[in-house]
Amino acid sequence: MQTRHAGRAAWWWIPRLxxxxxxxxxxxxxxxVVRLGGWQIWLIRHRLPPPYVASGSTIDxxxxxxxxxxxxxxxxxxxLESGLGTGASGWGFVPEWxxxxxxxxxxxxxxxxxxxxxxxxxxxxxxxxxxxxxAAAGEQPPFIVxxxxxxxxxxxxxxxxxxxxxxxxxxxxxxLPDIRPVERVALDPALREEWLSGLRATNDQVAAxxxxxxxxxxDQLTRASVEGLPLELLFVDQRFRWEGRFEPAEADLxxxxxxxxxxxxxxxxxxxxxxxxxxxxxxxxxxxxxAILRLVDRDRLAxxxxxxxxxxxxxxxxxxxxxxxxxASCPDATSSGSLPGFHLMLQPRxxxxxxxxxxxxxxxSRAARRSCPLTGTSLPGRAPSSWPR
Length: 389
What we know:
Blueprint: H1 2-11, H2 13-36, H3 39-45, E1 57-61, E2 64-71, E3 77-81, H4 94-99, E4 103-107, H5 123-136, E5 143-148, H6 151-161, E6 166-172, H7 189-210, H8 214-223, E7 231-235, H9 250-262, E8 268-272, H10 280-283, H11 285-303, E9 322-324, E10 336-337, H12 342-346, E11 353-355, H13 366-371, E12 378-380
Parallel strand pairs: 3-4, 3-5, 5-6, 6-7, 7-8
Antiparallel strand pairs: 1-2, 2-4, 8-12, 9-10, 9-11
C-alpha cells in the first residue's frame, strides 16, 4: 500500500506540468497576436492562410454545377481566378476585405473543389463557363477580373472574350507562358533551351491538372488582348527568378521582362511585392486589395457624369492613410500600406511606419520609381494622365 501511494506521489506533477505548458503557450500566443495587431495580421505575418469557410453555393449551369462564392455589395463586381488546381479557397483575406467595399466573387473552376468537370476543354471554354455561372447567379457587369498565377491566363482570356463588360484587370504574380525574356537577350543557347524546356514541362503539368487542350488554349491566349484596359500587375522580386547560372544576364533579363509585361496594356501599373513568396495574396493581401480598389475607384469615377466630380461617398478611398520612411537603398522612393504596421511587420527593410493624417500617402518621384524598380513598391508604367495621383 505504501509503495502504491509513493508511485502516485511521484507522478502527480506531470498533469500540472502539462497544464502549465499549455497555459504558457496560450498566453504567449495571445500576447503575440495582440502585439501584432490582431489575429488576421498574426496569420499574415507568419505566412498562414486563414481557414476558408465555404459560404458560397453551387449554381446549375450548362448541365452541371459550379461553385460560386459572392460577398459584399456594389459595382463593379470583382471576379477572382485562382492558381493551378485551386479555387475559391485560395484567396486568404482578399475576398473579405474587398467585400467591405464592393461585390466580389470567387469560384471553383470546372473539375476543382465543388464544381463538376466539363471534360477536355480550353481556357476560352472556361471563360465562357464562368460568364454563364455569373449570369445564372444574377451577377452583373462591369467586372474587374483578378487572376493569381495560372489564374492570370484565365483572367486575360476572360477579359478579352468579354471586353465590353470588363473595366479592369489585376494580375497577381501571374503565369505568363507567352512572355519569354530568354528569347530577347543574348544568352547561351543551351541555357535558353533549358529554360524553354522547363516552360514546356510546366505547360504539360497545367494541361494534365486542369484537363486542358493546351495547344488550343495557348493559341487563344496569344490572340487575347487586354490592351487599353486598366491593368494592375503585382510580381515578386524578379531577382530571385534569375539566380544561379542566369545571374550574369540578370539585369538584361529583368529589363526584357519589364518591357514584355508592360506591353500587355499601355495603361498599366507595376507593383513589386518585396519579401513576398509567390502567394502574394497570403503574404501581402494589402497590396492585392489596394490594386483592386484602385480599379474600383477608376470604374466609379468613369461612370460618373462627365464634367461632374464624383462625391466621396461613391469612392472606396483606396489611398492609404499610413506612410513609411524612405527605402534605404532607394532614398527618394517611399512605400505605403493599407493597414497600420504592415510594412513594419512584413517588409522590415522598408523602414519604420507611422500613422498618417488621412492625406494621400507620399509617392516617389517618377524618376526615382523607375530607377529603383526592385525595392520600390508601386511603379506606374507609362503613367497615363487618367491614373489617380
